[in-house]
């Protein structure tokens, strides 16, 4: 009976999705369009969360993409896609998993759309980001922390 009571007390709700910050730079300007378009694209993902008040948390998914032609940056785009989430009845590892997996998974399609729009408005070809498995990234981060912790014990 305790499990059912705990499950009934757990709540998760999306309150709002918004762009916290975005930027687009094309340092090469028109010169980028005179070169053959075979960019080296680097994608960097980062997530963070903080309690706003009570059961409300802000989760921010930051995606930075750098496209280079040879050694020159054709464009740099960064989007901080954020969401306000109500999370009630979760603590410890369960809360961390929700903040690191479930919330970024919800935010990612919005960030991907924003990035694609910025790149297109910069007159570059569409940039279709592949789906991200945030659970796999979370597990990988835990494994890295465990390895670093084990390395410090010696």
How would you summarize the topology of this molecule?
Blueprint lengths: L1 H8 L1 E15 L14 E14 L2 E14 L2 E17 L3 H30 L12 H20 L1
CATH topology: Bacterial Protein-export protein SecB
Extract low-pLDDT stretches. Answer: none
CATH homologous superfamily - what is it? SecB-like
- From the N-terminal CA to the C-terminal CA, the straight-line distance is 45 Å
Q: Percent helix among the residues?
A: 25-40%
Q: Would you mind describing this structure in some detail?
A:
It is a single chain. The protein has helices at residues 2-9, 92-121, 134-153, and strands spanning 11-25, 40-53, 56-69, 72-88. It is globular, with a radius of gyration of 19 Å. The chain contains three helices and four strands. A hairpin with a 2-residue loop joins strand 2 (40-53) and strand 3 (56-69). 38% of the residues lie in helices and 39% in strands. The protein is α+β, with helices and mostly antiparallel strands and 154 residues long.
Task: Write a concise synopsis of the structure shown.
The chain is of the alpha+beta class and 154 residues long. It has one domain: Bacterial Protein-export protein SecB.
């Amino acid at each position: 009976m305790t499990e059912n009571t705990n499950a009934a007390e757990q709540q998760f709700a999306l309150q709002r999705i918004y762009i916290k910050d975005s930027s687009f730079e094309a340092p090469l300007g028109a010169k980028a369009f005179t070169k053959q378009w075979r960019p080296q694209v680097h994608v960097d993902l980062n997530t963070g969360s903080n309690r706003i008040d009570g059961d409300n948390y802000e989760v921010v998914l930051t995606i930075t993409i750098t496209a280079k032609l040879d050694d020159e940056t054709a464009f740099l785009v960064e989007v901080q896609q954020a969401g306000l989430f109500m999370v009630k009845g979760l603590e410890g590892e369960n809360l961390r998993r929700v903040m690191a997996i479930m919330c970024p998974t919800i935010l990612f399609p919005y960030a991907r759309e924003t990035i694609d729009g910025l790149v297109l408005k910069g007159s570059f070809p569409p940039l279709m980001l592949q789906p991200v498995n945030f659970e796999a990234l979370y597990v990988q981060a835990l494994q890295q922390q465990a390895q670093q912790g084990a390395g410090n014990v010696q």
